[in-house]
């Protein structure tokens, strides 16, 4: 009887310790906002408007990578990350999950990662201006993500293709992007918030070169972002 009680207590306390450790990791979660257009929302494995359901090994789910769903509840992150966000198109694999898993691989003690998907396919930079619904939605979701604790570590931004159609849009992209980033940092009260920009390299078409965000780099938006002991060197070739 005594032995049973002892076993029970042992199991009970180890469970309790585990769940309080999980709770504290949850409270201290590292939040990353995912924003932009279809490249971020994820179209990997989508053929004829249907996702093939294949999840590459680097995009697998695990209990320490969470996702803020459309109802602003945290749940275990699972591909496609934007399925309930970019709802008018078929979503597939995007960069968010692979990013989270590689951060955990580089820094295993980082604890819980919370991803906040906000990307919508086909959108241009004007639609992300302060005051527009995409911008407001991003800010609201970022704030909702903080309610139960955690720190926003960075915004991952993958957008620009929609602004390559006209020369004028491409030329004003740098300034629009800079304003977007500065407004976002102000509205999230995080003046040094790292913004990690993903863009295609090696494409030599004129319009795409025109939106190459050199302007953003010049204002020091992203270069050597330093995140909680992680040193990420983001350069032209390896972003
Ligand atoms: C951006 O997209 C919106 C919605 O499709 C459109 O109304 C607007 O004209 C576009 N703006 C630019 C500058 O292309």
What's the short version?
This protein has 239 residues and is an alpha/beta fold.
- The assigned CATH architecture is 3-Layer(aba) Sandwich
Strand content: 15-25%
CATH superfamily: SGNH hydrolase
What is the SS-derived class?
A: alpha/beta
Low-confidence stretches: 202-239
* Number of strand elements: 10
Gyration radius, in Å: 20 Å
- Given the C-alpha coordinates, what overall shape results? elongated
Number of helices: 7
Bound molecules: 2-acetamido-2-deoxy-beta-D-glucopyranose
Please tell me the total number of domains: 1
CA distance, first residue to last residue: 61 Å
Q: Give the averaged pLDDT, no decimals.
A: 81
Strand order of the largest sheet: 5-4-6-1-7-8
Order of helices and strands: HEHEEEEHEHEHEHHEE
Helix content: 25-40%
Largest sheet: 6 strands, mixed
CATH topology: Rossmann fold
Signal peptide: 1-19
Protein name: Sialate O-acetylesterase domain-containing protein
Keywords: Hydrolase, Signal
Pfam family, one: SASA
Please explain how this structure is put together.
By secondary structure, this protein is α/β, with parallel strands linked by helices. The protein has a single domain (27-226), classed as Rossmann fold. Helices cover 36% and strands 17% of the residues. Strands 5-4-6-1-7-8 form a 6-stranded mixed sheet. Strands 2-3 form a two-stranded antiparallel sheet. Strand 9 (225-227) and strand 10 form a beta hairpin. The model is unreliable at 202-239 (pLDDT under 50). The protein binds 2-acetamido-2-deoxy-beta-D-glucopyranose. 2-acetamido-2-deoxy-beta-D-glucopyranose (NAG) is lined by residues 124, 126-127, 169. The site of 2-acetamido-2-deoxy-beta-D-glucopyranose has 4 residues, from loops.
